[in-house]
Amino acid sequence: MTKTLKNLCCLMNPCLEYRCFSCSPSTPSSPLPWISPLQYLNRTSPKPDPPPTEVATTTVVKPRKKSKFISHASAINLIKRETDPQRALEIFNSVAKQKGFSHNNATYATILHKLAQSKKFRAVDAVLHQMTYETCKFHEGLFINLMKHFSKFSLHERVVEMFDAILPIVREKPSLKAISTCLNLLVESNQVDLTRKFLLNSKKSLNLEPNTCIFNILVKHHCKNRDIDSAFEVVEEMKKSPVSCPNLITYSTLISGLCGSGRLKEAIELFEGMVSKDQILPDALTYNVLINGFCNGGKVDRALKIMEFMKKNGCNPNVFNYSALMNGFCKDGRLKEAKEVFDEMKSLGLKLDTVGYTTLINFFCRARRVDEAMDLLKDMRENKCRADTVTFNVILGGLCREGRFEEALGMLERLPYEGFYLNKASYRIVLNSLCREGELQKATQLVGLMLGRGFLPHFATSNELLIHLCEAGRVGDAIMALLGLLELGFKPEPDSWALLVELVCRERRLLPAFELLDDLVIQEM
């Protein structure tokens, strides 16, 4: 029994028996007396004997204070704050030992969320089993949350199991929301067989009459699998149903599927039919599907016309619409137009996100216009848009392609002190370029910086650097670099070892040669 459980047990009735769950097998243990640490914290030095003139009085023993009752709200907060799922489960078990306390839907939902989040699925099963004996009212939201957890960990059969558990434990038929959630999770995970089986069982056992939401999930499923014709068949069934009809989400999904399949003409025709026949007005998301589709299809000018049509019809473009168009111009090599779109967006007070900035920076760097990319990086800071590792890696690659190694090395040295995270790719981009261009001194310095920060260069680059250093006669630098690499588990190729030992021997530096051979033997053991 852990310290947390012991601390809680002092608050409970020790005579009341209660079933407890555990994440690990329980072991029998004899009860031990527990002394509150408060007894030690409050202990004071003994009082001196009273003066003889005082009359001796009988010592009055104060009654012990009753333990504070932990409410449902307090129990929920304790479980939420506990980072260890085993201790959280112990808290859940301990509070139930209080006289007059019974767990409810909220406490069960809290502990199940904590356990599922921590992948303690055996404990989840134990708690679910106990719920079948409870008399309190449960809600299906608890099971919807569990479905999402199991789907996140790719336990798709368990998603269906949680759906099936709603009826016996909640004692009500699952709602359309529960059906839609389960169906959508299976579709998103591309579980075709499970999806089909789930639909058949739902129709048979629950007399399922699909609504618009369920039909839309099926449309999305077929579009995701590039089966556009089947998606249109679902829409036809949808129109026949008395409880559903196609809506904006239906059409946006179909248009996205057509664009993804390169059927741009049909996508426009469907868009026009949606507006003229069904009187459904598109929103910024629907327009974005078309803009993206035409940009990806290499028809940026058509995408620009869609944007203009969008403005004329009273739908203001958002940052995603501008980003899609800007990305299309960049892919087409039209950086001037991309910058104009960027400037227009800024003039409207729209702020580009990190991904949008990085996309634009990347194309400027690849066009060897790094100064303009650096201006965009400065613009990010002024607009309080924080650059991420990908942004800096793009900049570093651009600087290296232009041979501006001093600036790249300066960024590597400076950025961590400014609170920016760099990964091993950041260092490797620069190191690879230095080795390729024969900048051995700078490469050796960078290896020292990398090793000092715990980053190991790529295996092939490390071997290449050692060979280049040896061929340039810089044996001392090669030995220092090798010793540093060995400390982080690097194992050079035999050719690198042989060349280095040969050069050391040629310079009559036999002691280092023997040390290198010792390292080789140790590496091979």
Key traits:
single chain, 525 residues, mainly alpha, 29 helices, 65% helix, 0% strand, globular, disordered N terminus
Structural overview:
The chain has helices spanning 3-9, 37-41, 72-81, 85-95, 105-117, 121-131, 141-152, 156-164, 166-170, 176-188, 192-205, 212-224, 228-240, 248-260, 264-276, 284-296, 300-312, 319-331, 335-347, 354-366, 370-382, 389-401, 405-414, 424-436, 440-452, 459-471, 475-487, 494-506, 510-524. The chain has 525 residues and is mainly alpha-helical. The protein starts with a helix and ends with a helix.
Summarize the structure.
Helix content is 65%, strand content 0%. It contains 29 helices and no strands.
Question: Beta fraction of the residues?
Answer: under 5%
The number of helices is 29
Mean model confidence by pLDDT:
82
Distance between the termini: 45 Å
Radius of gyration: 34 Å
**Unreliable residue stretches:** 1-19, 24-59
Relative helix content: 55-70%
Give helix and strand order, one letter per element, not per position.
Answer: HHHHHHHHHHHHHHHHHHHHHHHHHHHHH
Total E-strand runs: 0
Question: What class do helices, strands and sheet pairing give?
Answer: mainly alpha
Q: What does the largest sheet look like?
A: none
Instruction: Identify the overall geometry.
Output: globular
Summarize the topology.
Elements lengths: L2 H7 L27 H5 L30 H10 L3 H11 L9 H13 L3 H11 L9 H12 L3 H9 L1 H5 L5 H13 L3 H14 L6 H13 L3 H13 L7 H13 L3 H13 L7 H13 L3 H13 L6 H13 L3 H13 L6 H13 L3 H13 L6 H13 L3 H10 L9 H13 L3 H13 L6 H13 L3 H13 L6 H13 L3 H15 L1
Helix pairs in contact: 1-4, 3-4, 3-5, 4-5, 5-6, 5-7, 7-8, 7-10, 8-10, 10-11, 10-12, 12-13, 12-14, 13-14, 14-15, 14-16, 16-17, 16-18, 17-18, 18-19, 18-20, 20-21, 20-22, 21-22, 22-23, 22-24, 23-24, 24-25, 24-26, 25-27, 26-27, 26-28, 28-29
